[in-house]
Amino acid sequence: MAKIIAYCGINCAECPAYLAHKNDDDELRAVTAEKWSKAYNSDIKPEYVNCDGCTMEGRHVGYCSKCGVRKCASAKGAQNCAHCPDYPCETLEAFLKMAPRVKENLEEIRANL
Ligand code: SF4
Ligand code: SF4
Predict the structure, then answer these.
(1) Which of 19, 61, 101 to mutate to test the pocket of ligand 1 (most atoms within 8 A of CB)?
(2) 35 vs 79: CA distance, rounded Å
(3) pLDDT for 47-102, tens place per residue?
């Protein structure tokens, strides 16, 4: 499946919240809710597992619904952070430390700009 790159570089096309919403997949919602409930020590309901994708208007879940990178890039009108003249800013660097694999997606885009 083609990548759907979030502002921060995450590939939303691999995210269960995106896939569950896109395919209206109740089984994936249930499995993911159980997994996330254990991982984040909280009670996540299956109906919560729905996301339209980072750069789309609509529903976003968990960290992504409050993400500072998302808010910044959206306000700047950047396609994603790879296209931003301030790349990589402190906010993005702080996020990428938590998600090092994601940086590869942004670097790949930058290599082809
Ligand atoms: S923005 Fe949505 S689809 Fe993309 S990674 Fe975050 S929760 Fe998943
Ligand atoms: S300033 Fe940072 S977070 Fe904002 S769009 Fe640029 S690289 Fe992304």
Answers:
(1) 61
(2) 31
(3) 999 999 999 999 999 888 899 999 999 999 999 999 999 999 999 999 999 888 89
Nearest alpha carbon to residue 29 among 9, 7, 51, 10 = 51
Place of tokens 């670097």: 107
Question: Which residue in 83, 62, 82 sits closest to 15, CA to CA?
Answer: 62
Report CA(5)–ligand 1 centroid distance (Å).
10
8 A C-beta contact, residue 56 and residue 64: no
The 10 Å CB-count burial string (b at 16+, else e) for 53-87 is bbbeeeebbeebeebebbebbeeeebebbbbbeeb
CA of 112 to the centre of ligand 1 (A): 24
